[in-house]
């Protein structure tokens, strides 16, 4: 891929993030994790160990960010389950990196695709309701200080 195309894609993602709502940011992070895992698989197949390390490190960082963004207080059982799934993914990718195990990467890709598919189906009305609830919680925290 030419430098110009790479630069354009990079700017496009940055522009998308600059105007994205929280729902879209999570979608972009999930997509980034998926893309980096796919690149890592290719790097393993080519025996490009530096490329494998870089792309898996990016995927691990993204999944760690997704895990860290969970609202454990408000999310209840759903947040607990996602935290455990992300933890499983992180462990699986660490083992995959060490053992050059494409099947483990495929396992994580499959889980991420499932989570992303569910996330993508959240309606605009439900997103707006969530934003409103979050704003109310934030306001209560400010008043409570």
Tell me what you see in this structure.
It is built from six helices and no strands. The chain has 145 residues and is mainly α. The protein starts with a helix and ends with a helix. The chain is elongated.
Question: What brief labels describe this structure?
Answer:
145 residues; mainly alpha; 6 helices; disordered N terminus
What's this model, at a glance?
The protein contains six helices and no strands. Helix 2 runs antiparallel to helix 3, helix 2 packs antiparallel against helix 5 and helix 4 runs antiparallel to helix 5. The protein is elongated, with a radius of gyration of 17 Å.
Strand content: under 5%
* Span of the ends, CA to CA: 52 Å
Q: Radius of gyration from the CA trace? A: 17 Å
Question: Quaternary arrangement of the chains shown?
Answer: single chain
Q: Give the helices and strands as they follow along the chain.
A: HHHHHH
Which SSEs are present, and which pair or pack?
Elements: H1 3-19, H2 22-46, H3 49-68, H4 72-99, H5 102-120, H6 124-144
